[in-house]
Amino acid sequence: MDTLFAPPGERWQAVSPKLRTLRRLLLVSWLGVLGLASSIVLIVLVAWWIGVLLLVVVGAVLLWGWWLIGRNWQSWGYAEREDDLLVTHGVMFKTLVVVPYGRMQFVDVTAGPLDRKFGIAKLQLHTATPASDAEIPGLTPEEAAQLRDRLAALGEARAAGL
């Protein structure tokens, strides 16, 4: 990792591989089904070669998306430090968010139906400045709950001195 976006010496935690699996399943479900249906309609109603061409394009986009999802999943990480939480992500456009514990107002844990089916949740940190909010997707429910409780306790302890 680039030292600007992932300072060395920190113990970086990765997100669950289930996040990658879920996103790839969604990619194949939506793009694959829509591409196949569109190709069949084009083959039957317009010209067979246009439908086949669309299938080739959809296949290429699926492969590219599969690869991108893997790279994006690898880019997510977080590190707990003494006074703040670091969250980094992004491949092309890298982001590092530093959230001081004393600035946190509240911590959310959310999980939609598919997230729950795959056993993952998203932790959202809220501060007074929306630009410094951070989220960590793809945490196991246990990890999300433990992190939420630790961050809430640290936030209360650090905010008490203000």
Automatic annotation (TrEMBL):
Pfam families: bPH_2 (PF03703). Residues 73-151 form the YdbS-like PH domain. InterPro entries: YdbS-like_PH. It comes from the Bacteria. The keyword Transmembrane applies. The chain crosses the membrane at residues 25-43, 49-69. Keywords: Membrane, Transmembrane, Transmembrane helix. This is PH domain-containing protein. It comes from Tenggerimyces flavus. The lineage of its organism: Bacteria, Bacillati, Actinomycetota, Actinomycetes, Propionibacteriales.
